[in-house]
Amino acid sequence: xxxxxxxxxxxxxxxxxxxxxxxxxxxxxxxxxxxxxxxxxxxxxxxxxxxxxxxxxxxxxxxxxxxxxxxxxxxxxxxxxxxxxxxxxxxxxxxxxxxxxxxxxx
Length: 106
Hints:
By secondary structure, the chain is an all-alpha fold. It has one domain. It is 75% helix and 0% strand. The protein is built from 5 helices and no strands. α2 (28-42) runs parallel beside α4 (65-77) and α4 packs across α5. It starts with 9 loop residues before the first helix and ends with a helix.
């Protein structure tokens, strides 16, 4: 697909998305900007045209575009479905832990 780099280890996908999950604030549109900076510009996991096409496809589908783009980028970089799951877990886990902690404190 477009200018994607060869697949990387799952731990790389997980740690990259964990870092994004810990530092990305502002909602789905802001997340897409963070994804572009980190994964297109710095890491070059995918080129600009591929990233733009991926965003267009994910905005067409129901649900959060940033979650779908993150999962798709994980699939492209990781080991197919496992890469998508690693990206989703890394990006979603920080928010889920914080929400769980708040729920326990009530």
